[in-house]
Automatic annotation (TrEMBL):
The keyword Coiled coil does not apply. GO terms for biological process: intracellular protein transport; protein import; protein targeting. InterPro entries: Helicase_C-like, P-loop_NTPase, SecA, SecA_motor_DEAD, SecA_SF2_C, SecA_X-link_sf, TPR-like_helical_dom_sf. It comes from the Eukaryota. This is Uncharacterized protein. Residues 141-303 form the Helicase C-terminal domain. One of its GO terms (molecular function) is ATP binding. Residues 1-304 form the SecA family profile domain. It comes from Poecilia formosa (Amazon molly). Keywords: ATP-binding, Cytoplasm, Membrane, Nucleotide-binding, Protein transport, Translocase, Translocation, Transport.
Length: 631
Protein backbone atom coordinates (compact mmCIF):
# COMPACT_ATOMS: atom_id res chain seq x y z
CA UNK A 1 0.00 0.00 0.00
CA UNK A 2 3.02 2.32 -0.24
CA UNK A 3 1.72 4.00 -3.43
CA UNK A 4 -1.57 4.73 -1.69
CA UNK A 5 0.17 6.19 1.37
CA UNK A 6 2.49 8.33 -0.79
CA UNK A 7 -0.41 9.74 -2.80
CA UNK A 8 -2.83 10.31 0.10
CA UNK A 9 -0.73 11.10 3.18
CA UNK A 10 -0.96 14.88 2.80
CA UNK A 11 -4.74 14.68 2.33
CA UNK A 12 -5.11 12.40 5.35
CA UNK A 13 -3.22 14.89 7.52
CA UNK A 14 -5.42 17.74 6.25
CA UNK A 15 -8.54 15.69 7.02
CA UNK A 16 -7.29 14.93 10.53
CA UNK A 17 -7.19 18.69 11.23
CA UNK A 18 -10.50 19.16 9.39
CA UNK A 19 -12.19 16.58 11.64
CA UNK A 20 -11.03 18.52 14.71
CA UNK A 21 -12.61 21.76 13.44
CA UNK A 22 -15.91 20.24 12.24
CA UNK A 23 -18.87 20.63 14.62
CA UNK A 24 -21.51 18.16 15.75
CA UNK A 25 -25.04 19.18 14.63
CA UNK A 26 -23.45 21.30 11.92
CA UNK A 27 -21.66 19.19 9.30
CA UNK A 28 -22.67 15.91 10.95
CA UNK A 29 -24.76 14.30 13.70
CA UNK A 30 -24.18 11.32 15.96
CA UNK A 31 -26.62 8.43 15.53
CA UNK A 32 -26.67 5.03 17.20
CA UNK A 33 -24.95 3.52 14.15
CA UNK A 34 -22.20 6.13 13.93
CA UNK A 35 -21.20 9.53 12.54
CA UNK A 36 -23.61 10.65 9.80
CA UNK A 37 -23.05 13.58 7.38
CA UNK A 38 -25.62 16.37 7.07
CA UNK A 39 -26.15 18.26 3.81
CA UNK A 40 -26.64 21.46 5.78
CA UNK A 41 -25.85 23.92 2.97
CA UNK A 42 -28.49 22.70 0.50
CA UNK A 43 -31.14 20.18 1.53
CA UNK A 44 -30.67 19.82 5.29
CA UNK A 45 -30.96 16.04 4.86
CA UNK A 46 -29.22 13.64 7.25
CA UNK A 47 -27.39 11.40 4.77
CA UNK A 48 -27.67 7.98 6.43
CA UNK A 49 -26.09 5.99 3.62
CA UNK A 50 -23.14 8.27 2.92
CA UNK A 51 -19.68 8.51 4.46
CA UNK A 52 -16.78 10.88 3.94
CA UNK A 53 -13.79 9.66 2.00
CA UNK A 54 -10.01 9.90 2.44
CA UNK A 55 -10.01 9.14 6.16
CA UNK A 56 -12.27 12.02 7.24
CA UNK A 57 -15.03 9.61 8.35
CA UNK A 58 -12.58 7.58 10.45
CA UNK A 59 -11.01 10.68 12.05
CA UNK A 60 -14.48 11.89 13.11
CA UNK A 61 -15.21 8.44 14.54
CA UNK A 62 -11.96 8.60 16.54
CA UNK A 63 -12.84 12.12 17.69
CA UNK A 64 -16.09 10.86 19.25
CA UNK A 65 -14.67 7.43 20.19
CA UNK A 66 -17.14 5.61 17.92
CA UNK A 67 -16.68 2.28 16.22
CA UNK A 68 -14.26 2.65 13.31
CA UNK A 69 -15.72 1.98 9.87
CA UNK A 70 -13.67 0.50 7.04
CA UNK A 71 -12.03 2.78 4.50
CA UNK A 72 -13.43 1.96 1.08
CA UNK A 73 -12.63 2.73 -2.54
CA UNK A 74 -15.17 3.98 -5.07
CA UNK A 75 -15.24 1.60 -8.03
CA UNK A 76 -18.72 1.93 -9.55
CA UNK A 77 -18.91 5.37 -11.07
CA UNK A 78 -21.77 7.15 -12.81
CA UNK A 79 -22.61 10.83 -12.40
CA UNK A 80 -25.98 12.57 -12.70
CA UNK A 81 -24.62 14.33 -15.78
CA UNK A 82 -23.57 11.05 -17.41
CA UNK A 83 -26.89 9.38 -16.61
CA UNK A 84 -28.98 12.13 -18.19
CA UNK A 85 -26.68 12.38 -21.21
CA UNK A 86 -27.33 8.72 -21.96
CA UNK A 87 -30.92 9.60 -22.82
CA UNK A 88 -29.69 12.17 -25.39
CA UNK A 89 -32.78 13.85 -26.89
CA UNK A 90 -35.29 11.42 -25.42
CA UNK A 91 -35.99 13.46 -22.27
CA UNK A 92 -38.91 15.76 -22.92
CA UNK A 93 -39.39 17.59 -19.66
CA UNK A 94 -37.87 18.20 -16.26
CA UNK A 95 -39.26 20.68 -13.75
CA UNK A 96 -37.34 22.40 -11.00
CA UNK A 97 -35.96 25.65 -9.63
CA UNK A 98 -33.12 26.56 -11.97
CA UNK A 99 -31.92 29.66 -10.15
CA UNK A 100 -30.39 32.55 -12.06
CA UNK A 101 -28.94 33.00 -15.54
CA UNK A 102 -25.56 31.49 -14.61
CA UNK A 103 -27.21 28.17 -13.67
CA UNK A 104 -29.24 28.15 -16.91
CA UNK A 105 -26.15 28.85 -19.03
CA UNK A 106 -24.28 26.03 -17.27
CA UNK A 107 -27.12 23.63 -18.04
CA UNK A 108 -26.94 24.63 -21.70
CA UNK A 109 -23.18 24.01 -21.82
CA UNK A 110 -23.55 20.55 -20.28
CA UNK A 111 -26.60 19.38 -22.23
CA UNK A 112 -26.44 20.44 -25.85
CA UNK A 113 -29.67 21.72 -27.37
CA UNK A 114 -31.44 22.10 -24.03
CA UNK A 115 -34.25 24.64 -23.88
CA UNK A 116 -35.55 26.25 -20.71
CA UNK A 117 -38.64 28.30 -19.99
CA UNK A 118 -40.42 29.95 -17.11
CA UNK A 119 -43.65 28.17 -16.25
CA UNK A 120 -46.11 30.50 -14.51
CA UNK A 121 -47.97 29.23 -11.47
CA UNK A 122 -51.61 28.31 -11.87
CA UNK A 123 -52.58 30.96 -9.34
CA UNK A 124 -50.94 34.36 -8.99
CA UNK A 125 -48.29 34.36 -6.27
CA UNK A 126 -49.04 36.68 -3.36
CA UNK A 127 -45.65 36.72 -1.67
CA UNK A 128 -44.52 39.89 0.08
CA UNK A 129 -40.75 39.92 0.69
CA UNK A 130 -39.84 42.02 3.73
CA UNK A 131 -36.56 43.88 3.39
CA UNK A 132 -33.70 41.69 4.62
CA UNK A 133 -31.31 42.76 7.37
CA UNK A 134 -27.74 41.91 8.37
CA UNK A 135 -27.08 41.99 12.11
CA UNK A 136 -23.60 42.81 13.41
CA UNK A 137 -23.28 39.98 15.96
CA UNK A 138 -24.98 36.74 16.97
CA UNK A 139 -26.67 38.20 20.06
CA UNK A 140 -28.45 40.88 18.02
CA UNK A 141 -29.22 38.33 15.31
CA UNK A 142 -31.00 36.04 17.80
CA UNK A 143 -32.85 38.99 19.31
CA UNK A 144 -34.02 40.15 15.87
CA UNK A 145 -35.26 36.67 14.92
CA UNK A 146 -37.18 36.34 18.20
CA UNK A 147 -38.60 39.82 17.76
CA UNK A 148 -39.92 39.03 14.26
CA UNK A 149 -41.30 35.60 15.26
CA UNK A 150 -43.11 36.98 18.31
CA UNK A 151 -44.47 39.92 16.33
CA UNK A 152 -45.85 37.68 13.56
CA UNK A 153 -47.27 34.96 15.83
CA UNK A 154 -49.21 37.30 18.11
CA UNK A 155 -52.22 39.55 17.69
CA UNK A 156 -51.55 43.16 16.68
CA UNK A 157 -53.86 46.13 16.28
CA UNK A 158 -53.90 45.65 12.52
CA UNK A 159 -53.50 41.87 12.00
CA UNK A 160 -54.23 38.49 13.56
CA UNK A 161 -51.86 35.70 14.52
CA UNK A 162 -49.88 34.09 11.73
CA UNK A 163 -47.93 30.84 11.46
CA UNK A 164 -44.14 31.20 11.20
CA UNK A 165 -41.48 28.98 9.63
CA UNK A 166 -37.92 29.71 10.80
CA UNK A 167 -35.33 28.14 8.47
CA UNK A 168 -31.88 27.74 10.08
CA UNK A 169 -28.59 26.77 8.45
CA UNK A 170 -27.67 23.97 10.87
CA UNK A 171 -29.24 21.72 13.50
CA UNK A 172 -27.09 23.43 16.13
CA UNK A 173 -28.38 26.92 15.25
CA UNK A 174 -31.97 25.62 15.07
CA UNK A 175 -31.61 24.34 18.64
CA UNK A 176 -30.17 27.74 19.68
CA UNK A 177 -33.18 29.59 18.23
CA UNK A 178 -35.52 27.04 19.81
CA UNK A 179 -34.04 27.76 23.25
CA UNK A 180 -34.20 31.54 22.67
CA UNK A 181 -37.93 31.27 21.87
CA UNK A 182 -38.64 28.93 24.78
CA UNK A 183 -40.54 31.44 26.96
CA UNK A 184 -41.74 33.63 24.10
CA UNK A 185 -43.70 31.18 21.92
CA UNK A 186 -46.00 28.40 23.10
CA UNK A 187 -46.84 26.38 19.99
CA UNK A 188 -43.46 25.59 18.43
CA UNK A 189 -42.09 22.46 16.78
CA UNK A 190 -38.64 21.34 15.62
CA UNK A 191 -38.10 19.89 12.13
CA UNK A 192 -34.36 19.27 11.99
CA UNK A 193 -33.75 15.56 11.46
CA UNK A 194 -35.26 13.27 8.83
CA UNK A 195 -34.47 10.26 11.07
CA UNK A 196 -37.09 11.36 13.55
CA UNK A 197 -40.85 10.92 13.34
CA UNK A 198 -41.96 14.27 11.93
CA UNK A 199 -45.52 13.21 11.10
CA UNK A 200 -47.01 15.56 13.72
CA UNK A 201 -45.75 18.56 11.71
CA UNK A 202 -47.71 17.52 8.63
CA UNK A 203 -50.66 15.86 10.39
CA UNK A 204 -52.74 19.04 10.51
CA UNK A 205 -52.89 22.52 9.06
CA UNK A 206 -50.75 25.14 10.76
CA UNK A 207 -52.90 27.27 13.00
CA UNK A 208 -52.60 30.79 14.35
CA UNK A 209 -49.44 31.21 16.45
CA UNK A 210 -47.83 27.94 15.34
CA UNK A 211 -44.06 28.15 14.83
CA UNK A 212 -41.84 25.60 13.10
CA UNK A 213 -38.07 25.87 13.64
CA UNK A 214 -36.36 23.90 10.90
CA UNK A 215 -33.28 23.38 8.80
CA UNK A 216 -33.32 23.32 5.00
CA UNK A 217 -35.36 20.12 5.36
CA UNK A 218 -38.39 22.41 5.37
CA UNK A 219 -37.02 24.57 2.57
CA UNK A 220 -37.33 22.05 -0.21
CA UNK A 221 -40.32 20.05 -1.39
CA UNK A 222 -42.28 20.59 1.85
CA UNK A 223 -45.92 21.55 1.37
CA UNK A 224 -47.03 23.12 4.64
CA UNK A 225 -50.80 23.44 4.86
CA UNK A 226 -52.17 26.50 6.69
CA UNK A 227 -55.57 27.14 8.26
CA UNK A 228 -58.10 29.70 7.04
CA UNK A 229 -57.44 31.89 10.08
CA UNK A 230 -53.74 32.08 9.14
CA UNK A 231 -54.63 32.95 5.53
CA UNK A 232 -56.85 35.81 6.76
CA UNK A 233 -54.00 37.11 8.94
CA UNK A 234 -51.58 37.24 5.97
CA UNK A 235 -50.49 33.63 5.51
CA UNK A 236 -47.30 31.81 6.48
CA UNK A 237 -44.33 33.99 7.39
CA UNK A 238 -40.92 32.50 6.49
CA UNK A 239 -37.80 33.72 8.32
CA UNK A 240 -34.63 32.68 6.49
CA UNK A 241 -31.90 33.04 9.13
CA UNK A 242 -28.83 32.64 6.91
CA UNK A 243 -27.65 33.57 3.45
CA UNK A 244 -28.37 30.53 1.22
CA UNK A 245 -25.50 29.25 -0.92
CA UNK A 246 -27.31 30.35 -4.09
CA UNK A 247 -30.47 32.04 -5.32
CA UNK A 248 -32.10 28.66 -6.06
CA UNK A 249 -31.93 27.48 -2.43
CA UNK A 250 -33.20 30.89 -1.31
CA UNK A 251 -36.15 30.70 -3.71
CA UNK A 252 -37.04 27.21 -2.47
CA UNK A 253 -37.15 28.38 1.17
CA UNK A 254 -39.23 31.45 0.37
CA UNK A 255 -41.44 29.20 -1.74
CA UNK A 256 -42.89 27.61 1.42
CA UNK A 257 -44.97 30.80 1.79
CA UNK A 258 -47.67 32.08 -0.56
CA UNK A 259 -48.37 28.68 -2.13
CA UNK A 260 -51.28 27.97 -4.47
CA UNK A 261 -52.66 31.48 -4.41
CA UNK A 262 -52.51 31.90 -0.62
CA UNK A 263 -50.89 35.05 0.81
CA UNK A 264 -47.53 34.89 2.56
CA UNK A 265 -44.41 36.81 3.54
CA UNK A 266 -40.69 36.12 3.88
CA UNK A 267 -37.66 37.86 5.31
CA UNK A 268 -33.92 37.25 5.29
CA UNK A 269 -32.22 37.90 8.68
CA UNK A 270 -28.47 37.26 8.50
CA UNK A 271 -25.68 37.45 11.07
CA UNK A 272 -22.54 39.06 9.63
CA UNK A 273 -20.28 36.81 11.72
CA UNK A 274 -21.86 33.75 10.07
CA UNK A 275 -20.83 34.93 6.62
CA UNK A 276 -17.57 33.84 5.07
CA UNK A 277 -14.51 35.99 5.86
CA UNK A 278 -14.24 37.31 2.27
CA UNK A 279 -17.90 38.40 2.38
CA UNK A 280 -17.44 40.12 5.75
CA UNK A 281 -14.40 41.99 4.38
CA UNK A 282 -16.26 43.06 1.25
CA UNK A 283 -19.21 44.37 3.30
CA UNK A 284 -16.83 46.34 5.51
CA UNK A 285 -15.07 47.74 2.44
CA UNK A 286 -18.40 48.74 0.91
CA UNK A 287 -19.38 50.56 4.09
CA UNK A 288 -16.03 52.34 4.29
CA UNK A 289 -16.34 53.55 0.72
CA UNK A 290 -19.89 54.73 1.40
CA UNK A 291 -18.74 56.50 4.55
CA UNK A 292 -15.83 58.21 2.77
CA UNK A 293 -18.14 59.26 -0.02
CA UNK A 294 -20.49 60.85 2.53
CA UNK A 295 -17.58 62.71 4.13
CA UNK A 296 -16.42 64.04 0.78
CA UNK A 297 -19.92 65.10 -0.14
CA UNK A 298 -20.77 66.73 3.18
CA UNK A 299 -17.42 68.24 4.37
CA UNK A 300 -17.07 65.78 7.29
CA UNK A 301 -20.36 67.00 8.72
CA UNK A 302 -21.30 63.72 10.38
CA UNK A 303 -17.92 63.08 11.97
CA UNK A 304 -17.54 66.76 12.90
CA UNK A 305 -20.90 66.81 14.66
CA UNK A 306 -20.08 63.66 16.60
CA UNK A 307 -16.75 65.21 17.67
CA UNK A 308 -18.52 68.41 18.64
CA UNK A 309 -21.17 66.64 20.73
CA UNK A 310 -18.50 64.67 22.55
CA UNK A 311 -16.45 67.84 23.18
CA UNK A 312 -19.51 69.70 24.50
CA UNK A 313 -20.21 66.91 26.99
CA UNK A 314 -16.71 66.19 28.26
CA UNK A 315 -14.68 69.24 27.17
CA UNK A 316 -12.02 66.82 25.82
CA UNK A 317 -10.80 65.52 22.47
CA UNK A 318 -11.27 61.91 21.38
CA UNK A 319 -8.24 59.65 21.71
CA UNK A 320 -7.26 57.04 19.05
CA UNK A 321 -9.13 54.18 20.77
CA UNK A 322 -12.32 56.27 20.97
CA UNK A 323 -11.98 57.24 17.30
CA UNK A 324 -11.68 53.56 16.41
CA UNK A 325 -14.78 52.73 18.47
CA UNK A 326 -16.66 55.59 16.79
CA UNK A 327 -15.72 54.32 13.34
CA UNK A 328 -16.91 50.81 14.23
CA UNK A 329 -20.28 52.12 15.43
CA UNK A 330 -20.74 54.05 12.19
CA UNK A 331 -19.76 51.06 10.07
CA UNK A 332 -21.97 48.70 12.09
CA UNK A 333 -25.15 50.53 11.14
CA UNK A 334 -27.27 48.37 8.88
CA UNK A 335 -27.61 49.75 5.39
CA UNK A 336 -30.35 48.81 2.94
CA UNK A 337 -27.69 48.18 0.34
CA UNK A 338 -25.74 45.66 2.46
CA UNK A 339 -28.03 42.76 1.58
CA UNK A 340 -27.89 43.68 -2.10
CA UNK A 341 -24.09 43.75 -2.00
CA UNK A 342 -23.93 40.38 -0.25
CA UNK A 343 -26.31 38.76 -2.74
CA UNK A 344 -24.45 40.21 -5.70
CA UNK A 345 -21.14 38.87 -4.39
CA UNK A 346 -22.71 35.47 -3.69
CA UNK A 347 -24.26 35.24 -7.16
CA UNK A 348 -20.97 36.27 -8.75
CA UNK A 349 -19.17 33.58 -6.74
CA UNK A 350 -21.73 30.97 -7.81
CA UNK A 351 -21.20 31.91 -11.45
CA UNK A 352 -17.43 31.48 -11.05
CA UNK A 353 -17.90 28.10 -9.35
CA UNK A 354 -20.17 26.90 -12.14
CA UNK A 355 -17.68 28.04 -14.76
CA UNK A 356 -14.90 26.19 -12.94
CA UNK A 357 -17.13 23.10 -12.73
CA UNK A 358 -17.65 23.07 -16.50
CA UNK A 359 -13.99 23.70 -17.29
CA UNK A 360 -12.25 21.58 -14.63
CA UNK A 361 -14.59 19.20 -12.80
CA UNK A 362 -16.78 18.04 -15.69
CA UNK A 363 -13.89 16.71 -17.83
CA UNK A 364 -12.66 14.71 -14.82
CA UNK A 365 -16.14 13.29 -14.24
CA UNK A 366 -16.40 12.26 -17.89
CA UNK A 367 -12.95 10.69 -17.81
CA UNK A 368 -13.82 8.65 -14.72
CA UNK A 369 -16.96 7.40 -16.43
CA UNK A 370 -15.04 6.41 -19.56
CA UNK A 371 -12.54 4.55 -17.39
CA UNK A 372 -15.38 2.84 -15.54
CA UNK A 373 -16.81 1.49 -18.79
CA UNK A 374 -13.35 0.28 -19.75
CA UNK A 375 -13.23 -1.55 -16.43
CA UNK A 376 -16.68 -3.05 -17.08
CA UNK A 377 -15.50 -4.35 -20.47
CA UNK A 378 -12.53 -6.05 -18.78
CA UNK A 379 -14.82 -7.49 -16.11
CA UNK A 380 -17.06 -8.83 -18.88
CA UNK A 381 -14.02 -10.52 -20.46
CA UNK A 382 -13.24 -12.12 -17.11
CA UNK A 383 -16.71 -13.65 -17.01
CA UNK A 384 -16.50 -14.77 -20.65
CA UNK A 385 -13.10 -16.40 -20.15
CA UNK A 386 -14.58 -18.46 -17.32
CA UNK A 387 -18.25 -19.36 -16.99
CA UNK A 388 -18.08 -18.57 -13.28
CA UNK A 389 -14.90 -16.76 -12.25
CA UNK A 390 -13.77 -17.23 -8.69
CA UNK A 391 -14.97 -14.69 -6.15
CA UNK A 392 -11.34 -13.89 -5.31
CA UNK A 393 -10.58 -13.05 -8.97
CA UNK A 394 -13.52 -10.64 -9.23
CA UNK A 395 -12.59 -9.07 -5.87
CA UNK A 396 -8.92 -8.71 -6.91
CA UNK A 397 -9.80 -7.03 -10.23
CA UNK A 398 -12.20 -4.68 -8.45
CA UNK A 399 -9.52 -3.81 -5.90
CA UNK A 400 -6.94 -3.19 -8.63
CA UNK A 401 -9.32 -0.81 -10.42
CA UNK A 402 -10.24 1.06 -7.22
CA UNK A 403 -6.63 1.48 -6.13
CA UNK A 404 -5.61 2.59 -9.61
CA UNK A 405 -8.23 5.34 -9.46
CA UNK A 406 -6.96 6.46 -6.05
CA UNK A 407 -3.26 6.47 -6.87
CA UNK A 408 -2.74 6.72 -10.63
CA UNK A 409 -5.60 8.78 -12.12
CA UNK A 410 -4.06 11.83 -13.76
CA UNK A 411 -5.85 14.23 -16.08
CA UNK A 412 -2.63 14.73 -18.05
CA UNK A 413 -2.30 11.06 -18.99
CA UNK A 414 -4.28 9.37 -21.76
CA UNK A 415 -7.08 7.02 -20.79
CA UNK A 416 -5.18 3.99 -22.15
CA UNK A 417 -2.83 4.24 -19.14
CA UNK A 418 -5.28 2.08 -17.19
CA UNK A 419 -3.51 -1.28 -17.54
CA UNK A 420 -6.40 -3.64 -16.95
CA UNK A 421 -5.04 -6.02 -19.60
CA UNK A 422 -1.97 -6.81 -17.49
CA UNK A 423 -4.18 -7.27 -14.44
CA UNK A 424 -6.28 -9.80 -16.36
CA UNK A 425 -3.16 -11.70 -17.46
CA UNK A 426 -1.95 -11.92 -13.86
CA UNK A 427 -5.31 -13.29 -12.75
CA UNK A 428 -5.22 -15.90 -15.51
CA UNK A 429 -1.80 -16.92 -14.17
CA UNK A 430 -3.27 -16.93 -10.65
CA UNK A 431 -1.17 -14.00 -9.51
CA UNK A 432 -2.34 -11.02 -7.50
CA UNK A 433 -2.64 -7.98 -9.84
CA UNK A 434 -2.13 -5.64 -6.92
CA UNK A 435 0.63 -7.37 -4.91
CA UNK A 436 -1.89 -8.19 -2.20
CA UNK A 437 -1.01 -11.46 -0.47
CA UNK A 438 -4.58 -11.74 0.90
CA UNK A 439 -5.62 -12.64 -2.65
CA UNK A 440 -3.64 -15.89 -2.40
CA UNK A 441 -5.19 -16.65 1.00
CA UNK A 442 -8.72 -16.07 -0.32
CA UNK A 443 -8.12 -18.07 -3.48
CA UNK A 444 -6.53 -20.88 -1.45
CA UNK A 445 -9.65 -21.04 0.74
CA UNK A 446 -11.85 -21.31 -2.37
CA UNK A 447 -9.70 -24.18 -3.70
CA UNK A 448 -9.87 -25.91 -0.32
CA UNK A 449 -13.68 -25.79 -0.39
CA UNK A 450 -13.53 -27.44 -3.81
CA UNK A 451 -11.36 -30.20 -2.30
CA UNK A 452 -8.34 -29.13 -4.41
CA UNK A 453 -6.09 -29.40 -1.38
CA UNK A 454 -2.66 -29.52 -3.01
CA UNK A 455 -3.45 -26.40 -5.08
CA UNK A 456 -4.81 -24.60 -2.02
CA UNK A 457 -1.63 -25.44 -0.07
CA UNK A 458 0.39 -23.92 -2.92
CA UNK A 459 -1.65 -20.68 -2.70
CA UNK A 460 -1.25 -20.44 1.08
CA UNK A 461 2.49 -20.93 0.62
CA UNK A 462 2.63 -18.03 -1.87
CA UNK A 463 0.85 -15.80 0.63
CA UNK A 464 3.31 -16.79 3.37
CA UNK A 465 6.34 -16.21 1.15
CA UNK A 466 5.11 -12.73 0.20
CA UNK A 467 4.53 -11.51 3.78
CA UNK A 468 5.22 -14.03 6.58
CA UNK A 469 4.74 -11.45 9.38
CA UNK A 470 1.03 -10.89 8.69
CA UNK A 471 0.14 -14.26 7.16
CA UNK A 472 -1.58 -15.69 10.26
CA UNK A 473 -4.59 -17.02 8.35
CA UNK A 474 -2.44 -18.45 5.54
CA UNK A 475 -0.37 -20.40 8.12
CA UNK A 476 -3.56 -21.52 9.87
CA UNK A 477 -5.27 -22.67 6.66
CA UNK A 478 -2.14 -24.40 5.32
CA UNK A 479 -1.75 -26.43 8.51
CA UNK A 480 -5.26 -27.85 8.31
CA UNK A 481 -5.20 -28.27 4.54
CA UNK A 482 -2.05 -30.41 4.93
CA UNK A 483 -3.61 -32.52 7.72
CA UNK A 484 -6.82 -32.99 5.70
CA UNK A 485 -4.93 -34.00 2.54
CA UNK A 486 -3.25 -36.95 4.32
CA UNK A 487 -6.34 -37.77 6.39
CA UNK A 488 -5.60 -41.00 8.37
CA UNK A 489 -2.17 -41.42 6.78
CA UNK A 490 -0.53 -38.44 8.45
CA UNK A 491 3.20 -39.09 8.80
CA UNK A 492 5.42 -37.49 11.45
CA UNK A 493 6.69 -34.93 8.92
CA UNK A 494 3.13 -33.79 8.14
CA UNK A 495 2.35 -33.40 11.85
CA UNK A 496 5.61 -31.51 12.44
CA UNK A 497 4.92 -29.13 9.53
CA UNK A 498 1.38 -28.47 10.82
CA UNK A 499 2.77 -27.74 14.29
CA UNK A 500 5.29 -25.29 12.86
CA UNK A 501 2.59 -23.53 10.80
CA UNK A 502 0.30 -23.16 13.81
CA UNK A 503 3.13 -21.79 15.95
CA UNK A 504 3.94 -19.24 13.23
CA UNK A 505 0.25 -18.36 13.07
CA UNK A 506 0.36 -17.57 16.80
CA UNK A 507 3.39 -15.29 16.31
CA UNK A 508 1.59 -13.44 13.51
CA UNK A 509 -1.58 -13.06 15.60
CA UNK A 510 0.55 -11.52 18.36
CA UNK A 511 1.46 -8.78 15.87
CA UNK A 512 -2.22 -8.14 15.12
CA UNK A 513 -2.98 -7.95 18.87
CA UNK A 514 -0.07 -5.56 19.41
CA UNK A 515 -1.32 -3.39 16.55
CA UNK A 516 -4.75 -3.16 18.23
CA UNK A 517 -3.15 -2.08 21.53
CA UNK A 518 -1.14 0.68 19.83
CA UNK A 519 -4.18 1.93 17.90
CA UNK A 520 -6.29 1.94 21.07
CA UNK A 521 -3.64 3.75 23.09
CA UNK A 522 -2.97 6.55 20.60
CA UNK A 523 -6.58 7.12 19.54
CA UNK A 524 -7.74 7.35 23.17
CA UNK A 525 -4.83 9.43 24.42
CA UNK A 526 -6.44 12.85 23.88
CA UNK A 527 -9.69 11.99 25.63
CA UNK A 528 -8.28 9.74 28.37
CA UNK A 529 -8.74 12.31 31.13
CA UNK A 530 -12.37 12.97 30.22
CA UNK A 531 -13.35 9.38 29.51
CA UNK A 532 -10.98 7.40 31.73
CA UNK A 533 -13.84 5.56 33.46
CA UNK A 534 -16.22 5.47 30.49
CA UNK A 535 -16.38 2.58 28.01
CA UNK A 536 -16.93 4.07 24.55
CA UNK A 537 -18.10 2.44 21.32
CA UNK A 538 -14.53 2.69 20.11
CA UNK A 539 -13.38 0.69 23.14
CA UNK A 540 -16.06 -1.95 22.51
CA UNK A 541 -15.09 -2.11 18.83
CA UNK A 542 -11.41 -2.80 19.53
CA UNK A 543 -12.29 -5.11 22.41
CA UNK A 544 -14.46 -7.11 20.00
CA UNK A 545 -11.55 -7.49 17.59
CA UNK A 546 -9.24 -8.48 20.43
CA UNK A 547 -11.79 -11.03 21.70
CA UNK A 548 -11.99 -12.69 18.28
CA UNK A 549 -8.20 -12.78 17.91
CA UNK A 550 -7.82 -14.25 21.41
CA UNK A 551 -10.47 -16.87 20.57
CA UNK A 552 -8.56 -17.78 17.41
CA UNK A 553 -5.33 -18.10 19.43
CA UNK A 554 -7.16 -20.36 21.89
CA UNK A 555 -8.38 -22.51 19.00
CA UNK A 556 -4.79 -22.80 17.72
CA UNK A 557 -3.45 -23.73 21.18
CA UNK A 558 -6.00 -26.53 21.44
CA UNK A 559 -5.04 -27.78 17.97
CA UNK A 560 -1.33 -27.77 18.92
CA UNK A 561 -2.08 -29.88 22.01
CA UNK A 562 -4.02 -32.43 19.91
CA UNK A 563 -1.22 -32.70 17.31
CA UNK A 564 1.44 -33.11 19.99
CA UNK A 565 -0.63 -35.88 21.60
CA UNK A 566 -0.95 -37.61 18.23
CA UNK A 567 2.82 -37.45 17.78
CA UNK A 568 3.43 -38.95 21.23
CA UNK A 569 1.00 -41.85 20.76
CA UNK A 570 1.69 -42.51 17.07
CA UNK A 571 -1.92 -41.63 16.25
CA UNK A 572 -3.44 -39.13 13.84
CA UNK A 573 -5.85 -36.17 13.99
CA UNK A 574 -9.29 -35.83 12.51
CA UNK A 575 -10.11 -32.37 11.13
CA UNK A 576 -13.63 -30.95 11.50
CA UNK A 577 -14.49 -27.50 10.15
CA UNK A 578 -17.16 -25.01 11.20
CA UNK A 579 -18.24 -21.53 10.15
CA UNK A 580 -16.06 -18.78 11.52
CA UNK A 581 -18.85 -17.59 13.89
CA UNK A 582 -18.34 -20.79 15.93
CA UNK A 583 -14.94 -19.40 16.85
CA UNK A 584 -16.60 -17.47 19.69
CA UNK A 585 -17.18 -19.07 23.10
CA UNK A 586 -20.82 -20.09 23.87
CA UNK A 587 -21.38 -17.10 26.19
CA UNK A 588 -20.80 -14.75 23.21
CA UNK A 589 -23.42 -16.35 20.97
CA UNK A 590 -26.24 -14.33 22.58
CA UNK A 591 -27.76 -11.91 20.02
CA UNK A 592 -26.54 -8.74 21.75
CA UNK A 593 -23.00 -10.04 22.22
CA UNK A 594 -22.91 -11.44 18.70
CA UNK A 595 -23.92 -8.03 17.31
CA UNK A 596 -21.06 -6.38 19.23
CA UNK A 597 -18.53 -8.98 18.06
CA UNK A 598 -19.67 -8.97 14.42
CA UNK A 599 -17.01 -6.37 13.56
CA UNK A 600 -14.34 -8.61 15.07
CA UNK A 601 -15.54 -11.57 13.00
CA UNK A 602 -15.58 -9.37 9.92
CA UNK A 603 -11.96 -8.35 10.52
CA UNK A 604 -10.71 -11.96 10.49
CA UNK A 605 -12.91 -12.75 7.49
CA UNK A 606 -11.21 -9.90 5.62
CA UNK A 607 -7.89 -11.60 6.43
CA UNK A 608 -9.15 -14.68 4.55
CA UNK A 609 -10.52 -16.79 7.43
CA UNK A 610 -13.74 -18.41 6.23
CA UNK A 611 -13.79 -21.47 8.53
CA UNK A 612 -12.32 -22.60 11.82
CA UNK A 613 -11.01 -26.08 12.50
CA UNK A 614 -11.31 -28.41 15.47
CA UNK A 615 -9.05 -31.45 15.87
CA UNK A 616 -9.75 -34.79 17.49
CA UNK A 617 -6.85 -37.14 18.31
CA UNK A 618 -7.51 -40.73 17.18
CA UNK A 619 -5.58 -43.84 18.18
CA UNK A 620 -3.77 -45.84 15.51
CA UNK A 621 -2.60 -49.37 16.42
CA UNK A 622 -0.11 -49.43 13.53
CA UNK A 623 1.22 -46.04 14.53
CA UNK A 624 1.50 -47.11 18.17
CA UNK A 625 3.61 -50.21 17.31
CA UNK A 626 5.76 -48.23 14.87
CA UNK A 627 6.37 -45.74 17.65
CA UNK A 628 7.53 -48.55 20.00
CA UNK A 629 9.76 -50.11 17.32
CA UNK A 630 11.27 -46.72 16.48
CA UNK A 631 12.12 -46.13 20.15
Amino acid sequence: LSDLVDSKLKLWIENAFCAQSMEKDHEYILESHGVVPVDYSCTGVVQNFMTWSDGLQQFLEMKHMFKLSDMTTITNYMSNVGLLQKYKNQIYGLSGTLGQQAEIETMRKIYEGIETCQIPSFKRRKLFEVQGVIMKDERRWIEKICEVVVEQSQFTTFAGKRAVLVVCETIKLANTIDQALKEKVKNKMLYINNNRDNSVIFAKKLGSGDVIIATNLAGRGTDLQISDSVKKAGGLFVVQTFLPKNARVEAQAFGRAARQGSPGSAQLIVCSSHLSKPLQLLILTSKLLSFIENILCSPCEKLFLLYLRHYQKSNALLNSQEISSLMKSILAENSNSDMMVVKEIRDSSVAEQLSSYVESDLPKIKKKEELFYQYLETLDLLYKSNNKPSESDVSALNEFWGMWLLTKLNMEQPITELDLGNAMQKLIQKESPFSNFHYYTAYGSELKEKKKLSESISMFTRAINQDPCWAAVAYYNRAFASLTSQNRNQDPECLSQALEDLQNALKSLDLYCEQLKVTHKHARQEVMELLSSYITRFDLHLQARATVLISLKSNIHQAIQKIERARRTGGFVKVDESLVYFLLPPEHILPMMLHTLASGIKSVESMGLSHIYVLDTLFSLAGFFSKIVFK
